[in-house]
Amino acid sequence: MRNWPLFRLRLTTPRLELRLPSLDDLDDLGDRAAEGVHDPDVMPFVFPWTHGEPADRARTTVQYHFRAWGEWSPESWKCPFVVVFEGQVVGTQELAGTDFGVTREVFSGSWLGRRFHGMGIGTEMRAAVLHLAFHGLGARYATSGAFTDNPASLAISRKLGYAADGVQVHNRLGEPAETLRLRLSRDDWTTPAGFLIHDLEPCLPLFGVSRTA
Question: What Gene Ontology molecular function terms does this protein carry (predicted)?
Fold first, then answer.
């Protein structure tokens, strides 16, 4: 689309492609959500969207992306990519910013279809959006967070160089649960080999970034 260049934005890594989803991609992503994202005995999300029935999880997934596109502004944006591995949509990786043109700070979140866990995909897709943030958009900091009983997510953050940035308590299914906040500085980031950004230039104003930033 000429008036929404984000649909041409792509991130590629040695094994993955990240892109804003087509309608077919959203169907596939909904299928991954319906199949399951995590062990049913745990809840890694502050908002427990994965507790619904499979069809509800699929529909909620599709609606989330429509809402992110519709509410996008340079002052407040969420960019949820689908992650494609060996030709198949396997999950989603989001990068978000509020007043990014001033703060130069981004937040990331993600989920991966359960049957694709343990393959290193989670680390690679997070590294892809960090490359976009630091190299493409000129971010100074990237933040993330995970419940303290979510070792897989915390391991990815440690592997990529994040440092602890405090603790926050959330209401998780009616019980208090601690989230570990995490922060990564551009000075502490080195992009791995083979990570590329495609067709970013026309998208920069939508991220609140000038072409001369």
Answer: protein N-terminal-serine acetyltransferase activity; protein-N-terminal-alanine acetyltransferase activity
CATH of 5-207, one of 3.40.50.300, 3.90.660.10, 3.40.630.30, 1.10.10.10: 3.40.630.30
Give the model confidence (pLDDT) of 32-89 as tens digits: 999 988 877 776 666 677 788 899 999 999 999 999 999 999 999 999 999 999 999 9
Any idea which residue has 């990068």 for tokens?
A: 95
The C-alpha atoms of residue 30 and residue 44 are separated, in whole angstroms, by 18
User: 133 and 164 in contact (C-beta within 8 Å)?
Assistant: no
Helices (H), 71-203: 100-103, 121-131, 151-160
Grouping H, G, I as helix, E, B as strand and the rest as coil, residue 139 is coil
- DSSP letter assigned to residue 162: -
Give the start-to-end residue ranges of the domains of the chain: 5-207
Amino acid at 174: G
pTM higher than 0.90 = yes
